[in-house]
Amino acid sequence: MTKRVLIVDDEPPVIEVLKDFFRQFRHQHTYETESARDGAEALIVLLRGQFDLILLDMHMPRMGGLELLKQIRGLGVNVPIIMITANADTRAAAEALSGGVFAYIPKPFDIRHLDHLVALAVSSRSSAAGG
Predict the structure, then answer these.
(1) b/e string for 90-114 if b means 16 or more Cβ within 10 A?
(2) Which of 40, 90, 114, 126 stands the most exposed, by the fewest C-beta atoms within 10 Å?
(3) What CATH number should be reported for the domain whose range is 2-125?
């Protein structure tokens, strides 16, 4: 089974690293990734298709992660979101968590931690969807 993942980050090298991570993950399914460079572009991508998981950068131009999170929830999209950031702003982290993100992780990524969170997020979505 293939799971669709949207990666939203304004840094192309980060997007490439995350895409590489998803190619390496060995869960009971494969991952198909799509990317967007900011929140405004991500909204367009989200309106075109459904995703099983979103990795969302906190700080981006045009529309940042917290604003996009509000927009996603406002559209009624109930998909696990892992918020990523290079900034250790605890107030922003608390706001993200209260906004319904599945997890909040710092850059640089710990591959084992990210692998574990992705497996949990996707399996929680599968069981919530009934399979």
Answers:
(1) eebbebbeeeebbbbbeeebeeeeb
(2) 90
(3) 3.40.50.2300
What pLDDT, in 10s, does the model give residues 44-85?
A: 999 999 999 999 998 888 888 889 988 998 888 889 999 988
Indicate the pLDDT class of residue 129, thresholds 50, 70 and 90.
Answer: very low
DSSP category for residue 109: P
In 3D space, the residue among 108, 119, 78 whose CA is nearest the CA of residue 9 turns out to be 108
Across the beta sheet with 53-57, the strand order is 30-36, 2-8, 53-57, 81-85, 103-106
Over the Cα atoms of the chain, what is R_g? 13
In 3D space, the residue among 59, 56, 60, 34 whose CA is nearest the CA of residue 47 turns out to be: 34
Say if pTM beats, i.e. exceeds, 0.70: yes
